[in-house]
Amino acid sequence: MGYKGNFKRVEKKYLITEDKFAKITEMFNDKMHGDEYGRSTICNIYFDTHTYQLIRQSVEKPLYKEKLRLRTYGIPDDEDNAFIELKKKFKGVVYKRRINMPYKKAYDYLVYGISPEMDTQIFKEIEWFLKFYDYPKPSMVITYDRIAFYGNDDPELRITFDRDITWRREEPDLRKGVFGNKLLADNEYIMEIKVLGAMPLWLSKLLNDEMVFPSPYSKYGNAYKTVLNSFLEEKESNEQFLTVNYRRNSN
Length: 251
Known about the structure:
Layout: E1 6-17, H1 18-26, E2 32-48, H2 53-59, E3 64-73, E4 81-90, E5 93-102, H3 103-112, H4 121-132, E6 137-151, E7 158-168, E8 181-182, E9 188-195, H5 201-209, H6 219-250
Antiparallel strand pairs: 1-5, 1-9, 2-3, 2-6, 3-4, 4-5, 6-7, 7-8, 7-9
């Protein structure tokens, strides 16, 4: 598939097991074909404000939400191709705008404010986003292995399977490699169906036969919730410790 700067589509996510993955892909037959790169490792840095404003708004499931990320396919070197992606969702429809450039140039732009001196409409939209949110900083690295399929009759139909989803907050630079905390069990996948309009009848039937139902899932959102829960548990533990010691000292 060639490079595209913008997308408009509906995306549905499903949490499935490895058994379901095998059954579903076996039934693709002449309907879908695999991506030319086969299995690939997707690497992302998500950017956010110091108060996590973007992801906090997102997990509240509003009618409109947006996020910014830096993406590469594989662990990058300085000159490897990278994408700065601005992703928006309004009433269930996803709009994605992206520009590409060498990884170091993209990283230096988003992290240090060194402009790549571009003059495209999409670059101007990204510039506006950065200024509006007071220049968000790297918030989280999320990586995963992806297997992608495209429709034979409809190349805009895309089905991806992501596994080994890993997140980290430390060392937010994709050149550092893949490491961190796991989000899913070893036998679980996030299946995502991306289509311009209505889902093909054969695909709806396949999902119904296999009893696979939508399960909204945000990788960044779930990683953020994990961090938040850990913080709340630590806070509660500290408060209990202080309370116990206060009572002991009082006695």
